[in-house]
Design a protein that fits this description.
2,3-Dihydroxybiphenyl 1,2-Dioxygenase, domain 1; 23% helix; 4 helices; alpha/beta
């Protein structure tokens, strides 16, 4: 069964936002992010990865939100099979977000590092991130 293992928050002040989740909820800093697409932090409670990100361009953020957006950006599900979930997402009318996948240099069968594997559009425009490998600081599917 797929499990939510990752939530990404887009913010204009990564330091302030990360500090809030660390101090208030006791989350641990797992890594810092400084990629061509975003800067920020990966935090974890031991089961879930919380990304605090400031996107560097609209293509990586997704043009409907853009790099200036602040709020929950996407939700990541760890799955047993990218192929099986791709079929279910297609049946449910959730298309690939090729624009974001291409901007990040990711997509099914061509993972180039990082945690993201494939992004889709979910209901209400929510961006969904699916991964077989999971995210840093999270427990596995069987845990």
């Amino acid at each position: 069964m797929p499990k939510i293992k990752h939530i990404a928050i887009s913010t204009q002040d990564v330091e302030k936002t990360a500090k809030f989740y660390i101090e208030v909820f006791g989350m641990k800093e797992i890594a810092r992010v400084d990629s061509p697409g975003a800067t920020g932090y990966y935090l974890s409670d031991g089961d879930l990865n919380l990304a605090i990100l400031n996107f560097k361009n609209d293509q990586v953020a997704g043009v409907e939100r853009g790099k200036g957006y602040s709020g929950i950006h996407h939700i990541g599900f760890q799955v047993e099979s990218l192929e099986a979930i791709a079929e279910k997402l297609a049946e449910a009318g959730s298309p690939l977000r090729d624009d974001i996948n291409e901007a990040l240099g990711v997509g099914q069968g061509r993972r180039h590092g990082g945690n993201v594997e494939v992004k889709y559009r979910g209901p209400d425009g929510v961006i969904l991130d699916v991964s077989e490998t999971g995210w840093v600081g999270t427990s596995g599917l069987g845990d």
